[in-house]
Amino acid sequence: MRLICLFLMLVSREILCVIWMLMLISLPSLMGNLVHTPASTWPRMQKMTPLHFNDYWVLCFIPGYLVGYVSHRRPKVAPCESVVTEDPSENIPLHPSTSLDWGDLKRLLSEKLSAEAFDRKFSDYGMDSHDAGSSEDEILAVKVKTVFEQQRMNPWTDQLFVKVDTPTSNKIMFGSDVIGTPQGYLAYSATGTKQGRVVYANYGLPKDLEYLVHLKINLDDCVVLLRAGKISYAEKVANVAKHNAAAVLIYPDPSDYDFTSSTELYGHVHLGSGDPYTPGFPSFNHTQFPRVQSSGLPTVLAQTITADMAVKIFLKMTGGEAPSDFIGKLKGLSTYKLGSDQDQVTVTVSNALVEKRIHNVFGVIKGFIDSDRYVVIGAQRDSQKGPGFAKSTVGTALLVELARGISEMVNKDGFRPRRSLVFASWSAGDYGSIGATEWLEGYLSSLHMKAFTYISLDGVIRGHEMLKASASPLLFSFISYTFLKYKYVLFFSFPLPQNSANYPYFGTILDNKINLDSSTSHKLGRVAVTAAQLAGQMALTLVHDHLLMLDVNKYKNTISSRVNKIYLLIDEIKLAGAVNDSVSAALIADWLTSATGSYRRAANDLSTAAKSSDLENVEACRILNDRYMKVEYNFLSPYVSPKDVPFRHILWGSGDHTLAALLDHLTALKGQTPGTNLDKLRNQLALATWTIQACANDLMGPIWEMQNEI
After folding, report:
1. What is the model's pTM?
2. Pfam families annotated for this entry (predicted)?
3. Which strand (E) or helix (H) includes residue 401?
């Protein structure tokens, strides 16, 4: 199972990307679409007796980051209009009750959740089809809103008008032979017809493409054949586009996906999140922004094909044999070829953009002290194709059951949370977390200092045998504390990895209750209870405790390791004589190292202040918590436009503003690669320095306490 909690640091379209904690997400997923950490690199925490599920994710962000009209007439359904209900807090004492301790809260939450209730919800919310903006999607929205109304959660809705891609007639040909007309598709692909030499490039990882370049295989205007897995579709297409390919074909290899060879794949290739035609601003009705395209939209054609179609292509391919790590398990193939000039493939993609009206549905349980600070718990409601049971139905069921259970704890059992809980049901999640991202973009000025954690329930249950957490380093300690109480095999990574080895059915019509139940050894209801308890306990901790469990010290080593690599690489460049004396004198990282030291001192200062704080002093706790909340937000580069750069985090984002890009530029300079630019490099150093220094300054607190530390 997977949960993701994100530290709301999305300022723009980073929603489901960096501020997630682990319960997911990713804005993302939601946010996810960053440079992902392979599973083999995850620090292994503590091995204990495994339970029967896999991947409980929590993504945490700090809003600065957090994350239509249909073309045909639909049956009328009940409208998602706001309803004014009585505020249950009006008749509740102002100050939190001290009669319930943490043990009481855990017991109450456990009593509210049952396998039988989840089984009923799975049946109630399960649908064979519920694409974003469809009548089925709106029916589900009404059901969720009704639950919020019954629990007196003051529900409301947001209406958005977004652009989504729909398939028409796509076709693949090898020479004059038709390989197939796939029903699966990749939303937001470029459209048209392209012909070129077909080249097999394994998963489309940078190292895979570099291997081909090393073999002197030119990818210009080629059709690149890839197998699915390891990274997202969007990342695969973006990697190939850097080599000027004409088109990308992606198929599921039996070595990674255990389903029938005729199974179609569905997904999207927007390297970002939200509506790609309103980058950086919301898709509310009647907004006057001009229609523009996100920089994350691909310029190459992208299409999924079945394993059967891939076999047909491979059987016709010539050229050299692929290396052993490129070889999968396609039936009927004795070898995998890399391709040659005579292997000409034609790809036609004719997807059509349509505008759809979608609804996000919200409910709130108000806090009693810091009611304007809140945790957001969210779940995707739609499915691009088929039931989408594990991806959206399970999350929606968990969302409404947690809302019901925690509401009853407040209304009937005397629980008085310090902070508020917002429950959100998102639409258009399968197209790149559109609903969540557009909401963040619409209310960013309000959210970035109020919503401090996002817990995403998307794809929360995936299989069995282990638990994985993907989170901001700020949340590692918090997640360990929560998860290890359940005796899981726990792994950590950030950003969120893309593999779903134990449950391969995401993005197919096979994502249904039967397959998920089988993946959980027919204990789906029990696993759902455990997932809800984990998510609920994390949420309750975050709204109950005086101080937020965000460990700013965890970022000290993360930043230092990156900066040390930069410092050492600059020394290597100078020692190798890769630059002349004037360039060498200008190439220094001392100020970047100094900024890293400033962050370390600020983190130590905050930890000391927290340990000596008076927990009964409400204002003092609020000031300390505000300092915690701003860390992830301050790691978003203020020097790049959210319209042009979807992921602005200098550590986990992508683009020239990141420390990873700075390292790449230095590596190119060391190798005397043509095109290196010293002025650009110095600018990267300066902007990275001041992003880290600004974060340290804000973490330190009031300006009179900095004492000229800059």
Report:
1. 0.85
2. PA, Peptidase_M28, TFR_dimer
3. helix 394-411
